[in-house]
Amino acid sequence: MNRYEMFYIIDTGLEETARKELIEKVSALIVNNGGEIEKVDETWGKRRLAYAIDYKTEGWYVLVNFKAPAELPREIERNLQINENVLRYLVVKLEEKRSAVKPRAVRPAPAEEAAPAEEAAPAVEAAPAAEAAPAETAE
After folding, report:
1. For the domain that residue 37 is a member of, what is the CATH number?
2. Is the separation of the CB atoms in 9 and 85 below 8 Å?
3. What is the Cα–Cα distance from 94 to 19, expressed in whole angstroms?
4. Does any domain span residue 47?
5. Residues ≥6 apart with Cβ < 8 Å to 78
6. pTM for this model (two decimals)
7. Given this model, what pLDDT does residue 120 score?
8. pLDDT at residue 134 in the model
9. What digits encode the pLDDT tens for the residues 71-90?
């Protein structure tokens, strides 16, 4: 299951009981479709919008953190789009936290590196000398 964060804005013309029912309906939609709600945050409350949406200048902000299968955000967005009391919504998949520390590469000890290099060098020098001697005798 993936972790998601959903933010939606409800029309302020809606009464408090109807607003609570809408929030419960969205939460129930998540749970009924195999999701798991971590947190519903209404503390943002009523705020002024950055620009007018359908001639409305204020909205009630709700933030929901939840875990769900990959198909569920599309279903939630479909339901929020149909509901005329929801002015705007946004569902974002949260990335898992990764460590900023990179693992160190394992390097062989310096003594192990020097020994094979010394053995390989005489073998390379001996090979051309051995080829040169038979070539002189052949003439």
Report:
1. 3.30.70.60
2. no
3. 26
4. yes
5. none
6. 0.66
7. 54
8. 57
9. 999 999 999 999 999 999 99
